[in-house]
Amino acid sequence: METSSLSITDGATTIPYNPNLELAVSEAEQSWRSFCNLTLEQKKGFPYIENVGYEHKDESNGSDLKENFHVTIGALRRLAREMAKTNCPEATKFIASVTALAEFMEEAVREYCEFLEKKYEITGIADRILRNKGGWTFRFLHYFPGTTSGKEIAAPHADKGGFTFHLRESTGGIQYLNPDKSWESIAVLEDETVLFSGMQMQFASAGKVIALCHRVVANEISEAEGRFSVVCFVDMANTPSYDKKTHGRMQDHEPGFNYEMSFEEFSKLFAK
Ligand SMILES: [Fe+2]
Fold this sequence. Notes:
By secondary structure, this protein is α+β, with helices and mostly antiparallel strands. The protein has a single domain (3-271), classed as Jelly Rolls (Sandwich). 33% of the residues lie in helices and 25% in strands. It has nine helices and 14 strands. The strands form three sheets. The protein has an eight-stranded antiparallel beta sheet with strand order 1-2-10-7-12-5-4-3. Strands 6-11-8-9 form a four-stranded antiparallel beta sheet, with no helix packed on it. A two-stranded antiparallel ribbon has the order 13-14. The structure holds fe (ii) ion.
C-alpha cells in the first residue's frame, strides 16, 4: 500500500488492497459464510463472552435481524485451541482464516496511522494504535434477507474507537454523512477497503479528524439474499473512550452531532 494512493474524502478513506491482505480477507469471508451455514445449535456452541464469540439476534431480542462473530486478535490462540476440541471443521477453518487475516492487518494499520499523522500534523497516533493490537476486533456480520430495499439495516452512528476498516461487503449499502449533512454512498470494490475514523480518533487528534457518521441501507440484493460483511475495529491504547453509560448509544445521537462541536464540548463525552 502506497500512502500516496490513499484517497481521503470528508473523512472516509479508500485504500487499495495489498494482494496478501485482499486474499486473506476473501478467504476469511468465505469461511465465515461456511460457518453461517452450520446449524444454530452448532453456532451457539461458541457464545459471545467478553467481546469474543457468536451472537444471533432476531425479533425476540428486539434487535436487527443478524448474526455476528467477534474476534479480538488477543483471543485468537485461545479460540483456535477451543475450536480444535469441538470437531467442527468449519469453525476450525474460520478461526485459522482470521488468524491469517490478522497477520496482514498491522502493515495496513501502520501505514494509515502514518498517513493521518502526516496529513493532520499530529503525533503519537501510530504508537497508541499499535500498542493495542491485541484489542483490535474483527466483526463478521451476516444480515438476514428481508429488510425492504431503501430501509436502514444499520442505524446512523459513528464508531467509538480509533478507526474501522470496512474490509469486505457482499453488496452496496454503506453510506456516510458528509460535512454538508447529506448521505454519500460508498462503492463496494473487491480490490480496496474503506476506513472511517471513530470517536477516539476525534478525541486523540483534538478534533482535527472527525468521527464519521455512517449507516447501512438495504438494497434489492440484500433484501433477497442478505448481506455479509467483515470489519475490523482498531481501538487506541491510553486514550479515553466515549462514555456510553452517561451519554447513551451512539445511535441515539442526531447523525453528525459531533461534526461542529468544539473540542471542549466534545471531550465532555469521554470517560476519564
Ligand atoms: Fe459502524
